[in-house]
Design brief:
Layout: E1 20-23, E2 26-28, E3 38-41, E4 46-49, H1 55-68, E5 74-78, H2 84-87, E6 97-101, H3 102-109, H4 113-121, H5 127-132, E7 143-145, E8 148-153, E9 156-162, E10 171-175, E11 180-188, H6 200-211, E12 217-222, H7 231-250, H8 255-267, H9 277-304, H10 306-319
Parallel strand pairs: 4-5, 5-6, 6-7, 11-12
Antiparallel strand pairs: 1-2, 2-3, 3-4, 8-9, 9-10, 10-11
Helix pairs in contact: 6-7, 7-8, 7-9, 8-9, 9-10
């Protein structure tokens, strides 16, 4: 294992959160906004999982990495998704090789000046952060994969596995020896999942696959380390939304009627801070909108082919958490 600097200085001296060593040579930071980034130390260099969006936090994370293993190169940055909270910090970890799913490359290739402006404007109520976002540089993946990839460096194995579900680009990093999975936004702990780009059936199936990995620790896209059982609440949330949306559809209700009627029910599934209620309600509506379109397609297919409806119900029943 690469030489590491040990000092009596408290970790995270910059005051932006302490790096936590969750296994020998595997670190995360749960304080940054946008994502929970991690890094894995190998004898040949570092493998990073996701990068902080806010420049001050990205620079702090790089400083913490260099404090832990001074002089060790960053071999790879792996983005679990194309969303800004996981990938816009890439520019602060160069030189390196960025790797992500091929769909993430497609999405990030479309990040125009208009996209950068929207990111900047989204922080208009936080001018100190907004000021940091005046020089956004989009660093696209250098390497992409379809189903998966395997990184073998310095005695470490990191498997990159495509899951989909949360978005068409979502992938996870699996450390089989350490039994740790970085699952990105597949898992939200005590939070309403963001479903605006979701495939709900695919998401539930992916959560089942994650449980079958044999992991002892899961690192979610946001928040602290948890265990595979925590995937159950997200699966139950998605299944509940699917069932209630289907109920509304069968009652002849429109998509807007479903959104209006179901937001209150969904809000009860996870705690919502008062200051974020409006944003979470909007997020839930986006998810209902997405699921309604899925249910509509499924029901239309069932009408054309009567056996299709039975097959979908069987598939959904098989995905229900045990």
């Amino acid at each position: 294992m690469a030489a590491r600097r040990r000092t009596s200085v408290k970790l995270g001296v910059t005051g932006l959160g302490e790096r936590q060593e969750i296994a020998p040579g595997v670190f995360i930071n749960t304080v940054y906004r946008g994502c929970t980034p991690g890094f894995v130390i190998t004898d040949e260099g570092l493998i990073l999982i996701d990068t902080p969006l806010i420049p001050k936090q990205a620079l702090d994370w790089r400083q913490q990495i260099e404090m832990e293993v001074p002089g060790l190169p960053i071999l790879y940055v792996f983005n679990t998704d194309h969303h800004r909270g996981h990938a816009l910090g890439n520019q602060y970890f160069l030189p390196t090789t960025v790797i992500a799913h091929e769909r993430a490359y497609k999405e990030m290739s479309g990040y125009t000046e208009n996209f950068k402006e929207r990111v900047y404007n989204s922080y208009k109520r936080e001018p100190e952060i907004q000021q940091q976002l005046t020089n956004i540089e989009i660093i696209l993946p250098d390497i992409t994969f379809t189903d998966g990839a395997r990184l073998l460096y310095g005695g470490r194995e990191v498997q990159l596995i495509y899951t989909g579900g949360h978005t068409p680009a979502t992938s996870i990093a699996w450390l089989p020896e350490e039994k740790i999975a970085f699952v990105g936004d597949m898992l939200w702990v005590d939070q309403h999942p963001y479903m605006a780009q979701a495939n709900s059936l695919e998401w539930i199936e992916a959560l089942r696959r994650i449980r079958e990995l044999g992991a002892e620790k899961l690192v979610p896209g946001h928040g602290p380390v948890c265990d595979p059982d925590d995937t159950m609440r997200v699966a139950e949330y998605i299944l509940f939304m699917r069932q209630r949306v289907r109920d509304y559809y069968h009652e002849g209700k429109t998509k807007n009627e479903a959104k209006s009627g179901l937001v209150g029910e969904m809000l009860e599934r996870f705690p919502v801070p008062l200051e974020r209620k409006s944003k979470i309600e909007s997020q839930i509506k986006s998810g209902i909108n997405r699921v309604y379109r899925e249910i509509q397609r499924e029901e239309e297919l069932a009408t054309v082919d009567g056996t299709m409806g039975d097959a979908l119900l069987v598939q959904e029943a098989q995905l229900e958490p045990a």
